[in-house]
């Protein structure tokens, strides 16, 4: 989905919000270690140790491949750290569902952080896109853009909240019934709610961002504050 710079009648030199926020490969990479964990756990008669070991090995393989392809080491290490922490947690507790506990906690924290950022008029979508475009905080001087980023950021709040609801329900079910099916469902949900959900979120938030900007606005790449207006 392409985000046009301003109204639907603006120029063709548009910027893809999806390209700015990360491509499909990041979402796919993030699902490989959890899938490896669940598959290994099933094949080794519920051995969380083997599952964790294979997940880490797969995570290291993905990280090595991405670094060799020129990806930023910091982004790669963040993903690998998540796999390592999840593996440590699951080995210590012995419950397979706990491999997804870090993911559940991260999404809960993200839901809160994005919602608070909107209330404080520092919507995180604006913070992230502004940083990626080298705008720093200039976008905050544009009241229309702040309002548009705030509205679009609610879509991201909904995305994280949906993950919390799904992962939380499956985790609770496993906690109550020690269900193998719940662990498998957590793995499936991890895949389904990774890149596909993010892609939908980017598309919807992009539409919301465009439509929230007033007619004639130069677009999110070109903050346009009123000459006499202070930062909101």
From TrEMBL:
Pfam families: DUF3159. It comes from Tenggerimyces flavus. InterPro entries: UCP010219. The chain crosses the membrane at residues 48-68, 75-92, 112-133, 154-173, 193-213. Keywords: Membrane, Transmembrane, Transmembrane helix. This is DUF3159 domain-containing protein.
